């Protein structure tokens, strides 16, 4: 795992590339973003239980959305990885719903379902820019085991049982370890907002 | 009024991770629009998601993946406004709901017990959790009940109390199989809550058993 300063430098680099896409439709910048993020998004989607083919397709869709939505990227409110994570997350939800039979609609606006900042506090944007750096620093303080259970909670629920098997601990232990890791994170982050 | 009762850190993390089912997602979103404290934590967890993504090992993309995306770069983006957002917003008259929920189809209020009314909200996707609004008259002593699954309650207006504390607008209450609460609605005004419920509600006691067949929730 790269050290903390390396991560911070990378974060600035990726944010710069997204801005180049937004301002100049810079294809070289996009290509670099694709090369780095698409294979990571693919792993992320794979671990949520998707097939090889659909993970590949969703990773493509995610990067296409990065191209199309680049102008909406706000480096003050989220870093490149966090922003791309939210895009991948929403596309994954959308894809899962499309697979479901019995859905009333075949399209959905997942983005709208995450718009909960209807009355943002004046200082919340600044706070979140600071918190991204603090979150990275706090995560670096977690033990490897704690980091793994935190990571677990970002995959689909159905995968938890499988990873409990991988870690060779009962599902209930995964949940109690997550509780402890969350407490630790909250202490490390202090009061956020 | 200050919000006293919040969802657990794990629930807010599951929201940020996008792993909640839609009914529970709606319940957490309803709390989040009125609680900047939990929004802060939820956004921090999105940053955690970003860190997870940044630290993950890559999986090779299919050989023509980039070419396929590249040929689509000039395509105009399809309108992202889907059919699900209809012009009508049947729940516009209910304060405290997130904007996206106000567009969901909702039924009329129906009587389920003395001074207690329920208004179902239809989720646009198949789901294991049902959501509905529950309106209880001032001073109502709710029937003793237990749950067969997880129940999340967000107070939209009015207030109530049970053994777990006092709950007013913005407060979030979590119940599961182990919860057995006697709820008392405060005097003065109706208490309206958004409820996301998995499984069935079991009413206890004689009156509960008499009413149960009519509740059909």
Summarize the structure.
The complex is a heterodimer of chains A (193) and B (217). Chain A is mainly alpha-helical and 193 residues long.
Topology:
The complex is a heterodimer of chains A (193) and B (217).
Chain A: H1 4-24, H2 27-47, H3 52-69, H4 80-99, H5 110-113, H6 124-141, H7 144-152, H8 157-167, H9 171-189
Helix pairs in contact in A: 1-2, 2-3, 3-4, 7-9
Chain B: H1 9-17, H2 22-34, H3 36-55, H4 65-70, E1 110-113, E2 116-121, E3 129-136, E4 145-147, E5 151-157, E6 160-162, E7 165-167, E8 172-175, E9 180-181, E10 184-185, E11 191-198, E12 201-203, H5 205-215
Antiparallel strand pairs in B: 1-2, 2-3, 3-11, 4-9, 4-12, 5-8, 5-11, 6-7, 6-10
Helix pairs in contact in B: 1-3, 2-3
Total count of domains of chain B: 1
Number of spatially distinct domains of chain A: 2
Q: Supply the CATH architecture of chain B.
A: Sandwich
Question: Looking at the structure, what is the overall shape of chain B?
Answer: elongated
Sequence of strands across the biggest β-sheet of chain B: 1-2-3-11-5-8
Using the coordinates shown, work out and report the CATH topology of chain B.
Answer: Jelly Rolls
Helix and strand run of chain A: HHHHHHHHH
Instruction: Give the count of helical stretches of chain A.
Output: 9
What separation lies between the terminal Cα atoms of chain B? 31 Å
Mean pLDDT of chain B: 85
Structure, explained:
- The complex is a heterodimer of chains A (193) and B (217).
- Chain A is built from 9 helices and no strands.
- With 193 residues, chain A is mainly alpha-helical.
- Chain A folds into 2 domains: 116 residues, Rna Polymerase Sigma Factor, Chain: A (Orthogonal Bundle), CATH 1.10.1740.10; 69 residues, Arc Repressor Mutant, subunit A.
- Chain B is of the alpha+beta class and 217 residues long.
- Chain B has a single domain, classed as Jelly Rolls (Sandwich), CATH 2.60.120.
- Helices cover 27% and strands 24% of the residues of chain B.
- The two termini of chain B are 31 Å apart.
- The model of chain B has no long low-confidence stretch (mean pLDDT 85).
- Chains A and B meet through α2, α3, α4, α5 and α6 of A and α1, α2, α3 and α4 of B.
